[in-house]
Design a protein that fits this description.
The two termini are 31 Å apart. The chain is elongated. A hairpin with a 4-residue loop joins strand 4 and strand 5. Helices cover 26% and strands 12% of the residues. Helix 1 runs parallel beside helix 3. The strands form three sheets. Strands 1-2 form a two-stranded antiparallel sheet. The protein has a two-stranded parallel sheet with strand order 3-6. The chain is built from four helices and six strands; from the N terminus they run H-H-H-E-E-E-E-E-E-H. By secondary structure, the chain is of the alpha+beta class.
Length: 186
């Protein structure tokens, strides 16, 4: 599956090849290019990976073959875009402690965790507090945070929003903004 940026680059490549003096467009050529860009060798083309470098090299060579003039940074075909990749280590655990008893909960099996910081590692210890869906929505008379102090604590919550088929309550089966991770993060 091509990522959006890969798809845009592919369309640019397709347009460039179509406008070349001697077009080399054929279903076989398109299939071969897509197969290469989607291949395991490119490792998903993720930022900062070998797959990304191979993809960039491939696209630059194809642009050059098509006769395109480089107009990007430092005479290249590309514009630099600074990116940061954040991933939870698969060996991470969530430790739950109550009194003198504790359990380690494995990442990916029992919980899914993300961090929206840009540090390499982040160790912390804090009390965790469950807040339902983590939603305050006065128009639905809903407040998961009512009478709950979460300052300095880890908030544990359900994804999405309270299930309902009533279109007047959180949009029924539709997902409203309250159910999105961006709302919960804010």
């Amino acid at each position: 599956m091509l990522h959006r940026s890969g798809f845009i680059a592919f369309l640019l490549l397709f347009t460039a090849l179509a406008s070349a003096e001697e077009p080399v467009i054929s279903p076989e050529r398109i299939k071969a290019d897509v197969a290469y860009l989607a291949s395991d060798r490119l490792e998903g083309r993720g930022p900062g990976t070998t797959g990304e470098e191979l993809t960039i090299d491939f696209l630059a060579k194809e642009f050059q073959k098509a006769g395109l003039k480089p107009m990007g940074a430092d005479g290249s075909y590309f514009q630099p875009v600074p990116l940061v990749r954040i991933a939870t280590d698969s060996k991470s655990t969530l430790k739950a402690t109550r009194g003198d008893k504790s359990i380690d909960i494995p990442c990916g099996e029992e919980f899914s965790g993300t961090s929206h910081t840009q540090t390499e590692t982040e160790d912390f210890e804090a009390e965790a507090i469950f807040v339902g869906h983590g939603i305050t929505a006065p128009e639905f008379e809903w407040d998961d945070y009512r009478d709950t102090d979460v300052k300095g604590k880890i908030v544990v919550l359900f994804t999405n929003e309270p299930p309902s088929t009533d279109p007047k309550f959180f949009g029924g089966t539709a997902l409203t903004y309250y159910g999105r991770w961006t709302f919960k993060f804010e």
